[in-house]
Amino acid sequence: MAIKRRAVLILIFILLGLAGLMGRLIQLQLVSTESFTDRDVNLIEASVSQRTQELVIDQGRGRFIDRNKKALTHEYYPTLVLFPFLKNVEWPVEEVADIVNIPASKLKNEIHEAKKPVIVGGERPIELTETQMNKINNLQIPGVFAVHRQYELDSEIAEHLIGLIRENRELFEKRYPEKNYLPKNTKLGITGLQSTFDEFLLPEGEAKLLYHVAGDGGPLFGIDVKYTAPANPYYPVAIQTTLDRDLQMLTEEILDKHDLKKGGIVLLDIESNDLLAMVSKPDINSSNPFRDGSAENQMIMPQFPGSVFKTVIAAATIENQQISNDRMFNCDQDLYGEGRAEYPHGMLNFQDSFAKSCNFTFAKLAQELIQKDQNVIEQYSEMLGLLGPVGWNGDVFRFQDFKQLPNEYNGRIWTDERDKKVAKAVAQTAIGQKDVRVTPLGIANMMATIARGGSKKEVRTVSDVLYKNGTTLFSFSKQDMDGPKIAPYTASKLQELLRGVVLSGTGQRFAQLPYTVAGKSGTAETGKKQGDAVLVNKWFAGYFPFEKPKYALVVVDIEQPGSKSVTNTVFYEIVQGIYQLEQEKGTNQSD
Predict the structure, then answer these.
(1) Of 25, 240, 369, 540, which has the most beta carbons under 10 Å away?
(2) Considering 280, 307, 381, 521, which one is annotated as catalytic?
């Protein structure tokens, strides 16, 4: 009896064990196939991946290109892919080698030790023409493919403007709760244009070549290789910026060469008001960009402008007929007219005061202007397109008031309206100190506005969103800025003043350049010190060529000892470099 009871118990344990195994099998095969364990392991994908070799051709996220469709984030061109099973089969290697113009032995070597699909050329893949790609694919050789593929560029270009992408599951779920078909580790734009255009850039899925393998690595189902891609043939898109890659790289190289530590440049096309180049320093600390603030784009952040701001006072003075040709100012006096100036210039008229950057003259003029109209300084700042935001904004599909530069700061003149009645506060404001803060982008926009004769325009950084096949999804039209503007006469007089700075004033160094330059220098105290040295913002803002304005350029060196500033050298070399590029372009076109 005891033996029978023992046998029944053993049988029960066996049945329970079988039931447990059966339950586990049901869980693995039917229930938790896509979310096994608390790590959400997809068992189906894991199973397939064990017997599949694949080559990702396109991650699926959209890319950025310049105004001439040159790559800024990813190259995208045809290249040759070979699968490793080719080393075990006969294939027309000589015929393929003839098409791509490389030795057959090189093609064989590429796959000799390969265990995964090989991109011919490795880190520097060979670039095929469309004709070569079509010839190879027409051969229909199993395991030999010519495909368009994305490749990251060797270096970051316009990193602050274009911005960063990162994996952030929490942000993804918050930003796109309805896109549950995408993996939660999908990379998102977190700064710059990557963030602004993130919804356009999100991937529809990866494009890849794949085939199934047996345990020995050989093909499981013959040598059939499949191409998989998202169903939508129009994606991923390309964001066509207004940048010129050659000019962007030129300016980045010059700033790196002279080790500009904080600051940067803004370069605008005067006719269109499109952004051609923008560089912010310091470079982004990719390991932790937000810890040290390196991800901040200094070119759209407010800075002390110093004497560059005298351009606003000059505009108000001209338009309000506040000046006569024979009026003289004692430029031996300091800003307040209470002592001797640090850099005395004797008696100067209005034009020479602007050229030599006489503080006393512009403090005096500002005080006279503000007695007649307390809002005159901010009014003319706005009329010159200085205060911002100056970046493109408008309606884009369902996005109302879409801003291409949503993190662009406004400029400001006053923080306390009562200061308008304080003579010393007005004097400091007149020379771009006290509470005055404007962005380098705003300064560049002011110079472009003057060069165009007073016409204000918004600054475009992106011109089009393009489908994968190159057709247009959306175009951003050029747009004027709202509000009053300066008179053409005022603009022409400002042009003369800015040219005078180079001919006989603080910008005489630039008179030797191959382009005729007009502009204004500026040195602003920041209230900070480095040891005994006072840290200043050093500016030069201008445009060129003077006779037929094409480029507006601003260079600012932020919070540096004045004696160590590289502003003028950088401005000089950028203008010179642009001239050389233009000459080379002209030579190539004539050839």
Answers:
(1) 540
(2) 307
